[in-house]
Amino acid sequence: MLLEWWSGTECVIHTDPRAYPKYGKENAIVVLNHKFEIDFLCGWSLAERFGVLGGSKVLAKKELAYVPIIGWMWYFTEMVFCTRRWEQDRKTVSESLLHLRDYPEKYFFLIHCEGTRFTEKKHQISMQVAQAKGLPSLKHHLLPRTKGFAITVRSLRNVVSAVYDCTLNFRNNENPTLLGVLNGKKYHADLYVRRIPLGEVPEDEDRCAAWLHKLYQEKVGATGWALHHLRVLFTRQLWCFGTSGS
Fold first, then answer.
1. Which residues form the Phospholipid/glycerol acyltransferase domain (predicted)?
2. N or C: which end of the chain has fewer CB within 10 A?
3. 140 pLDDT tier (thresholds 50, 70, 90)
4. Cβ-proximal residues to 55 (8 Å cutoff; 6+ apart), any chain
């Protein structure tokens, strides 16, 4: 892996040991926060740890299909691309997702529900939208876009077993970049994974949207992580393992 082998980056995955035996043995929708430039590499690391990297997919903006090498590779491995204009995406995304119902290998389907990477300016605009809609403010995330998530759940229901709620953070206020990774710079990541059975996600589109908003309200922001997870450690077994899997 570019992330761990080339740059030596440590990506420690924290999860409930009761959920661990299911990872890599079921199809899952991975909901990952979108704050860092190398989020997708950490998502690849998660899939690689559990032996499903070869079959895993992502819902990505269409512009990425034109990126040399990576974009072409994604196109030929049947990644799902969207324009972020729902009128255009409804049909194309639905058709792409339906192909995954018969996919022969286990896979993780990664979706960044925030739609774009977090910046302070985007966050300010996003919270204005949240206020206008009567939704609670999110300190460390953008307001999730619900339509892509809802259509993913609807298209893959009875094929996908769970949603993996994943929240990524880097220690010591690190701001990792792809260039830094390519230059061999080492970063220190924590990826918190919570397994939620897909049966707990409502089928109705409006209720599914409300469920996703609640999920993002529950996500713990970077500044509250240490205290929160110390509490979690003593209240429900939390298991963590690093690059070596130990």
1. 28-150
2. C
3. confident
4. 103, 105, 106, 107
